[in-house]
Specification:
- By secondary structure, this protein is mostly helical.
- The chain folds into two domains: about 80 residues, no CATH class; about 45 residues, no CATH class.
- The chain is about 80% helix and about 0% strand.
- The longest helix is centred in the first third of the chain and has 25 residues.
Length: about 130
């Protein structure tokens, strides 16, 4: 039973991912244009979406409740792991501060400016 579900999952993920990507590819617009970015993001999200559909269709009520508890409950993450995003943010801020301190000028940050001018691309960047 598990092998059949795994095969179905892989097959459905492959089909629906490439269906979304094909729409974006054959649309003829740039990858970062409005409709294409949605299809690229949707195609990349297909493994998650297909897995959620499988959970909803194959799990009973108790298994679904346990699954969503494991997915959503932030209390299940140990406190030490919460430090990682804080440390990474601190390193970035420290690097920018040192750059401004040593050069006297804030760098151009073209990628950040591109995200600000095209907020639709933020989910794919994250």
């Amino acid at each position: 039973m598990k092998n059949i579900l795994a095969t179905k999952f892989i097959l459905l993920t492959f089909i629906f991912s490439w269906l979304c990507w094909s729409i974006a590819i054959f649309n003829g617009q740039p990858n970062t244009a409005f409709p294409n970015i949605i299809f690229f993001t949707l195609g990349g999200s297909m493994p998650t979406l297909i897995a959620l559909i499988f959970v909803l269709c194959t799990f009973d009520k108790d298994k679904r409740r346990d699954f969503w508890s494991r997915v959503i409950n932030p209390g299940r993450i140990r406190r030490a792991w919460w430090l990682i995003p804080l440390v990474i943010t601190f390193i970035f801020v420290l690097g920018i501060t040192l750059d401004v301190f040593l050069s006297g000028v804030l760098s151009a940050m073209p990628n950040l400016k591109a995200l600000v001018t095209d907020p639709v691309s933020i989910p794919s960047s994250l």
